[in-house]
């Protein structure tokens, strides 16, 4: 039985619902002036974001309500409202979900996760380093951040028990929070590894005609958003939660050594290697990461074909019961919201107002370029406080063209600055995988907030400036 929404959630959802109702009724009451579509799009957006942020309704239910209200209101044609379903982002997520089922079913996921804990030196720093490094590497193979958390948390909790960290202890809280944070923060540098990246990729394609390539995206973000943030995460967890283990980490022995890889694991490992290689070389062969993921999912679903393929990696029963289809509806809803914002003209209007109210520079000097990049990232981070991280790219991406024109930046530079912004988490509620990890590990909100705030401060002081420097030195951003 699900928990009742908190008072805060009810206030957020209720107030958002009232504002949405007022905006939706404005055209009927003759209060919308010359732009009734703006009020309709604004009402639908406020409704969706407030209910997604509050959790007052399950996320896919809110998405379905958005679809129905949008169609009935006539805010945009159905092909715009439902455009998320034929977005590459949805099919990339679908492929990732099927791959995730295969990784877990075959035992390869557990093998990879347990490998993280087998050779620890016993110091708290080495424990956290192994968790963060392993979780980051796992993001290349397992595209679902929520799936990575669900996979790793039971193993990490068992590790905490083995190391002598009881519930509510500092050391245990650090292990839990490191596991939750590494599912989202550093993997934001990897295009298919987190939902917000996929939302932005889909919105950029539908609203701007911009295609994001796997390897190019990795080049923009891996050194700073990826590797540097992983190092900062290790340091922050160690600083806040360090506690020497009271029991030594177990060493691998002949009896405890993992069994040899099964034939199924080997086939899946080969498929993952080919999939990753195709993702990394998409600029050479021109195949979208979405179609690569869909092809990998198709291979996973193949029925037995003889000696060389004796069993399915994912059976139809697994596909029916273990693939998280509601998440696809949620993603399509966010993409549809972004498409409605753009098609109604509301996105252009809000972007223009944003340009007028934000102290952007004219872009005439290198300092102006860096200043503008910082403001774009900052606006995105602030938006994440209201819309939560998954909703931010759907809200902000339609503004990218206007922001690019007004700041002198390229559309790609603006999009990549958005990534830097939504990768910066202020409080735990913004990141669903972190919330799940904290619930599974019984870690209080105060501990999670301390870590998020410390990381946010370190990100502003170190990651953002070094990201801008990397983009300029690497030729990603052209300065005057």
TrEMBL record:
MF GO annotations: transmembrane transporter activity
Keywords for the protein's UniProt record, in alphabetical order: Membrane, Transmembrane, Transmembrane helix
Superkingdom field: Bacteria
GO-annotated cellular components: plasma membrane
Pfam assignment, any one: Na_sulph_symp
Entry's transmembrane regions: 7-26, 38-57, 64-83, 89-108, 120-140, 146-163, 175-200, 220-241, 290-309, 329-350, 370-392, 412-431, 451-473
InterPro entries assigned: DASS-Related_Transporters, SLC13A/DASS
Localisation per UniProt entry: Membrane
Membrane topology: Multi-pass membrane protein
Entry keyword annotation includes Transferase: no
Official protein name in the record: Di-and tricarboxylate transporter
